[in-house]
Batch of 2 targets.
Target 1
Amino acid sequence: MIQRNDPCWCGSGKKYKKCHLFEDEKHQSMTEPVAQPVLRRSRKERKYVKSAREINGMERAGAFNGELLDYIRPFVKAGISTGEIDSLVHDYTVEHGHIPACLGYRGYPKSVCTSVNNIVCHGIPSSGVVLKEGDIVNVDLTTIVDGYYGDSSETFFIGTVPENVRHLVMVTAEALIRGIDAARAGAPLSAIADAIEPFVNNQGCSVVHQYTGHGIGRKFHEHFSVYHHHDSDADRITLLPGMTFTIEPMINTGGWEVITDRDDGWTVRTADGSLSAQFEHTILITEGPAKVLTLTPSQKAAGVRLSVDGVNFT
């Protein structure tokens, strides 16, 4: 319950006792219900909130995106090229009447991003890049379903990997889950980074600063950035029911600095050559816990939000 010295619910910036307290007490004495907004909604924040129709569109896009990730899962193993993964993703998407969002986006030449080992993100699939035992690869999928975007990614082990590599991937998976758990109505957007960064640092890893999650809907990247490290810009946005965005922490075993390959202008690598991993879901803010829109069929069946190397993240 709001207290006398708390900021007034109306968003005036005044203390409650100097703003609406008298009026609310008057209404209460007349046994009339008092409509007190739970959250302060600025005009800027309200434009981030999806309508019921838009949410339905996002749910359908997320569902297919999850289906696509489960489809590609068995193929991601030693001996396959990242170019073959791209072809499989493209064909499955088009055959189901949908659009690979990455293809042609700002000139990107493929339908999926495949980031191997020290590649942080935006790795371009190639017939010359063949996955081998001990590698890790992030497969990042974005699809357009009836005008709405679904976006998710997972990092896969290729066979048996060293323990330090396994540690990195598990830390990254848990970082995503912690970020999703922190994304609740009424919290500042910065709560996500505050749940991720200290945990990652305590595990001896680092959070990439240059790349973030993002609002998503009828556009690939909408409105605001979702930081995974603390940034004061994220303090200014309050999470509201109806917001949809991605959380996609990119975590390195070394420093957080990255570089972009000059030859293609897309491939982002760790500056120090250390390994990098990433997991991503598209989520919807609700009145309760955030809803993951990009759950895969296998995740739904198991009642988990991620499952990595036999470890379930519920």
Target 2
Amino acid sequence: MVEEIIMRRKFLIFLAIVFLFGLFVLPKRTLAQNTNTLPAVIPDTYVKGQVAQIVASGYTTSYGTKSYYEKLQIQIIEGKEKGKIVNINFQGDSMFGDIQKLSDGEQVVIDEKPDPSGKITYSIYEAYRLGNFWWLLAAFCLFIIFVAGKKGVGALIGLSISIAVITLYIIPQIVKGVDPLSVCINGALVILFFTTYIAHGVSVKTTVAIIGTGLSLLIAVNLSTALMPFLHLIGLGNMDVYDLQLGTGSKVNPQSLLLGGILIGTLGALNDITTTQSLTIFTFVRENPTQKFYPLFRKGMEIGKEHIASLINTLILAYVGATFGAFIYIALNPQKTPLWVILNNETTIEDMFRALISSSALILAVPITTALACFISLRGKHYFSSIYSFIFALIRS
């Protein structure tokens, strides 16, 4: 038993080395985008301030619309001008009434900008929100730990690893000019490997879930790559991608970026469904080791179908929620554009394409993981033991 645990740990170390090798060595394939130099700009300076006094407030009328305004004294609370009081006229958007008004003591973000003569002018950029957000985030973490205990701690560690991989590896590599899809594949594998083992422990059933997730991701990548030309998608259906192309010096391949985004977005839901399926099958076998493959597979699929129905509904609703404003705009249709033209738009097709590919990967993950778990739990455990022993012997030698 002790030797088996040691072999599992050695196997985990070996896989970590393989993943890290792929992470830093394999992505050096083609530069799918180039970098252009933008004209030098003088950036604005942003500092935090606090409303010291509301000198005056009320409404102004312009072209028949009322706007809320405030004359404020703002104290700068950081930077080289800390403690300085500046007078700022704040004008709200006429569409939102007084919902944007500021209160005494409220913190704001101040934009310091030089005018043509070199004099610094001050304006309110927006309300400062991060201070309250950190408290909310801390409460959320404590809530997870309170409800889920050690599993909650593991989930938070896994989440931290995912964020670290995305911010410290995936994004910097894409900015450097490496193909977004290859970077996202490597990053997704690292996230999958570490977060799954941390959250669920090193075991055969967890390894089966990882393999099932990896195979499903591979199918999703190949499926989406094959279907993009079929739908004539060029990856510019999102305004953020346009801004990336026009507003920065990096020309990122939009098609590859779209595929990488689908991959990362699908990973979480896939990991959920594969770990559940693997655990279910191994639990069935532990309760009745004499089961046959097909009846076990059929029982696992019955549970998997319920999981598919729930997750696909959740996934589609998540996409709808993220683009809810677009649905309202389509319903109002102020320009009276024909519905088929709206549906044919690349933005609409891209969103539906993401949902279809992600859902297809989820559907495929259930039979793949269920079949693999049935095979390993019934008659394939000795294969894993042989692999552990072989790798352990290689490392020890």
